[in-house]
Design a protein that fits this description.
Blueprint lengths: L1 H10 L1 H10 L11 H10 L4 H14 L5 H4 L4 H6 L4 H15 L13 H8 L7 H10 L12 H11 L4 H7 L7 H15 L7
């Protein structure tokens, strides 16, 4: 992280501005595996706090929180825990992919980011945002820019006055090979400015 931060400070004045105002970001980390991917499915298009509350309800309802137990948990029980019908389908698709060995989660740590993306995108309900966050938080990929993330998009609009995904993608090229760390700066600014704290 230190090398990446030093590099970004030289590359773009925006990071100096953020660090002077709010200090440096932390690198979010989560364990690899099934539970984290399931939590990321829950986090799609809702707040982190809301998703965590639902995740904790599920873990209470399914103490042995493994794919074998998740796949037989009824749709009604998922609903009682606060999981939508759509996300229930996505979670079960993930559990089934692990059980059928279509997806080998342990092997992902040894594969390039592009290969990881190709394998995960096949699972219904896992899109590029979910994959981006998994790569960043779990697999320590340093060069990801999740342009499906509303906080990243809104912060780039505010600080850089660029407004299309194409412009953002192009602009972020100057942050390579540390676009993930650039993202942590953007999140840090977004949260600090709003007085919000998130435990990743």
């Amino acid at each position: 992280m230190e090398n990446a931060i030093a590099y970004l400070l030289k590359q773009d004045a925006i990071f100096e501005k953020i660090s002077q105002q709010f200090g440096f970001p932390i690198q979010p980390k989560r364990p690899q595996g099934f539970q984290t991917l399931l939590l990321l499915i829950l986090e799609q298009q809702v707040s982190v706090d809301s998703a965590k509350a639902t995740f904790n309800k599920l873990k209470t309802a399914i103490p042995n929180f493994i794919p074998e137990k998740v796949v037989v948990f009824s749709d009604e029980d998922f609903r009682v825990c606060g999981v939508s019908r759509q996300k229930t389908k996505y979670i079960k698709a993930l559990a089934e992919a692990v059980l059928s060995k279509e997806l080998d989660l342990e092997s992902l740590a040894f594969k390039d980011a592009d290969v990881v993306r190709k394998e995960l995108i096949k699972i219904k309900g896992i899109g590029n945002w979910t994959i981006d966050i998994y790569l960043m938080f779990c697999l320590n990929s340093l060069d990801i820019i999740p342009l499906g993330d509303i906080a990243v998009v809104n912060t780039m609009k505010e600080l850089l006055d660029i407004h299309t995904k194409e412009e953002m993608e192009s602009y972020a090229q100057k942050w390579k090979p540390y676009r993930s760390v650039a993202t942590y700066f953007l999140w840090h600014y977004y949260l600090e400015k709003r007085g919000r704290k998130i435990t990743y």
